């Protein structure tokens, strides 16, 4: 009897933890936010980079140097400024199909990529995006990525 009562009490908590199925509109909005970031990079448009992010957003990279793993933080403003100094077309992040998960106004997107610098493959990895819907628009709240030598 005690087990049944405990399960009954935990049922609402379990129900809240489940991720909602993404609507086509939400998925399109999330994909647009990700695409806007990569288009901003391709065009070397610092303003477009800034616009893709939510206020107080974070940007991080997982670094594995000689088997020692750490996380490097980069300010969004520094990233946007660096992108703005490139020439349009010099930076191109080609993304593979990715997974989106949504719960209300919070979403994640796991995005494998290949990064090209002046049409030469530079590195590969994956971006893990956290997005929030602010004022009805999906914005990037955080990105953490990996960077490695391409194997294929």
Element layout with pairings:
Layout: H1 2-17, H2 24-42, H3 46-52, E1 53-65, E2 68-74, H4 76-85, E3 91-95, E4 99-103, E5 106-117, E6 120-134, E7 137-146
Parallel strand pairs: 1-7
Antiparallel strand pairs: 1-2, 3-5, 4-5, 5-6, 6-7
Q: How many E strands?
A: 7
Structural class: alpha+beta
- Output the helix-strand order: HHHEEHEEEEE
Q: What is the helix content?
A: 25-40%
List the domain count as a whole number: 1
The CATH class, by name, is Alpha Beta
CATH architecture: Roll
Largest sheet entry: 7 strands, mixed
Describe this structure in words.
The chain has 152 residues and is of the alpha+beta class. It has a single domain, classed as Nuclear Transport Factor 2, Chain: A (Roll). The protein has helices at 2-17, 24-42, 46-52, 76-85; strands at residues 53-65, 68-74, 91-95, 99-103, 106-117, 120-134, 137-146. Strands 1, 2, 3, 4, 5, 6 and 7 form a seven-stranded mixed sheet that branches. It is globular.
List the keywords.
152 residues, alpha+beta, Nuclear Transport Factor 2, Chain: A, seven-stranded mixed sheet, 34% helix
Short summary:
With 152 residues, this protein is α+β, with helices and mostly antiparallel strands.
């Amino acid at each position: 009897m005690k087990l049944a009562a405990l399960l009954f009490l935990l049922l609402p908590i379990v129900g809240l933890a489940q991720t909602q199925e993404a609507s086509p509109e939400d998925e399109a909005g999330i994909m647009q936010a990700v695409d806007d970031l990569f288009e901003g990079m391709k065009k070397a448009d610092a303003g477009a980079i800034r616009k893709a992010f939510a206020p107080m957003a974070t940007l991080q990279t997982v670094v594995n140097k000689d088997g020692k793993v750490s996380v490097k933080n980069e300010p969004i403003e520094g990233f946007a400024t660096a992108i703005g100094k490139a020439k349009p077309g010099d930076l191109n992040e080609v993304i593979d199909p990715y997974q989106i998960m949504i719960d209300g106004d919070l979403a994640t997107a796991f995005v494998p990529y290949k990064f090209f610098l002046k049409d030469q493959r530079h590195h590969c990895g994956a971006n893990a995006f956290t997005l929030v819907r602010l004022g009805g628009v999906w914005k990037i709240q955080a990105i953490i990525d990996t960077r490695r030598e391409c194997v294929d």
